[in-house]
C-alpha cells in the first residue's frame, strides 16, 4: 500500500498530471508525469513528496482482475518513489493487456516508461537489491 502522503486522490490532480504532464506509453500501460515544485492545494512554499494515482478501467477485466492490477502497480510505484522528483504527480493508466500480464511484464513496462520520462534516472529498491 502507498503511504497516505504519496497518494493522488483529487480529481484535479489527476487531470493536471494527465493534461499538463509528459506521457510515456508502453504496451501494457501509459504513465503521465507532471513535475511540480509546490502543491497548489497546500498553503506556504512546502514541497510535497511525489504522489501517484492509478486508472484501471473495466476494459482491463472484472473487479478481481482490476484490483489485482492496482495492487501490483501500487507495489511497484512504492519501490520507485525515491526516484521521482519531489512534488511530482504520477498517473499510471493500465491498458487492457495489463489484466493478463504477469508481475514481471508490468515491472518491465513501468520501468521503461519511467526511464523515458525521467531520462534514465529510475533506481528503486528492487534494483538496489539486484545490484548487491
Automatic annotation (TrEMBL):
* Signal peptide span: none
Highest taxon of source: Bacteria
| Example GO BP | tRNA 5'-leader removal
The answer to whether keyword RNA-binding applies is: yes
Tagged with keyword Protein transport: no
Name a single GO cellular component. Answer: ribonuclease P complex
What SUPFAM superfamilies does the record tag this protein with? Ribosomal protein S5 domain 2-like (SSF54211)
InterPro entries, per database record: Ribosomal_Su5_D2-typ_SF, Ribsml_uS5_D2-typ_fold_subgr, RNase_P, RNase_P_CS
Q: What is the reaction catalyzed?
A: Endonucleolytic cleavage of RNA, removing 5'-extranucleotides from tRNA precursor
Gene Ontology MF, one: 3'-tRNA processing endoribonuclease activity
Q: What class of enzyme is it?
A: hydrolase
The UniProt keyword set, sorted, is: Endonuclease, Hydrolase, Nuclease, RNA-binding, tRNA processing
Q: What is its EC number?
A: 3.1.26.5
The free-text function statement in the UniProt record for this protein reads: RNaseP catalyzes the removal of the 5'-leader sequence from pre-tRNA to produce the mature 5'-terminus. It can also cleave other RNA substrates such as 4.5S RNA. The protein component plays an auxiliary but essential role in vivo by binding to the 5'-leader sequence and broadening the substrate specificity of the ribozyme.
Database matches in NCBIfam families: rnpA
Task: Give the quaternary structure.
Answer: Consists of a catalytic RNA component (M1 or rnpB) and a protein subunit.
PANTHER family named in the record: RIBONUCLEASE P PROTEIN COMPONENT (PTHR33992:SF1)
Question: To which protein family does this belong?
Answer: Belongs to the RnpA family.
| Name of the protein | Ribonuclease P protein component
Species source reads: Streptomyces xinghaiensis
Amino acid at each position: 500500500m502507498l503511504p497516505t502522503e504519496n497518494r493522488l486522490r483529487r480529481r484535479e490532480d489527476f487531470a493536471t498530471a494527465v493534461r499538463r504532464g509528459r506521457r510515456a506509453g508502453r504496451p501494457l500501460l501509459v504513465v503521465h508525469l507532471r513535475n511540480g515544485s509546490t502543491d497548489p492545494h497546500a498553503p506556504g512554499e512546502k514541497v510535497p513528496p511525489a504522489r501517484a494515482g492509478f486508472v484501471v478501467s473495466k476494459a482491463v477485466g472484472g473487479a478481481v482482475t482490476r484490483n489485482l492490477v492496482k495492487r501490483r502497480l501500487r507495489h511497484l510505484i512504492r519501490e520507485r518513489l525515491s526516484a521521482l522528483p519531489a512534488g511530482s504527480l504520477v498517473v499510471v493508466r493500465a491498458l487492457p493487456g495489463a489484466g493478463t500480464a504477469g508481475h514481471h511484464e508490468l515491472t518491465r513496462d513501468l520501468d521503461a516508461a519511467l526511464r523515458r520520462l525521467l531520462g534514465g534516472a529510475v533506481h528503486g529498491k528492487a534494483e538496489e537489491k539486484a545490484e548487491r
